[in-house]
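Final report, closing paragraph on structural work. Over the funding period we assembled a curated collection of sequence-structure pairs, and we close with a single example.
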Amino acid sequence: MITITHLDGSAAVVNLDLIERIESTPDTLVVLANGNKLIVRETPEELIDRAMAYKRGFLEKSISR
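Its predicted structure, as stored:
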């Protein structure tokens, strides 16, 4: 799960497994597997970095057990 920021400044947490794609249109558009679309303040690169950090942390926890 990663935190995203809507254009109005409110935050939400998104399940990474539901993200189908991220577009830059010029706003960042996150398209979910269920067809929902979220316009967010973060750049695609920021979202990718957050996703990678989350996955890395998840793997590190799994390995250390």
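The first strand starts at residue 2 and ends at 5. The radius of gyration is 13 Å. We thank the funder for supporting this effort.
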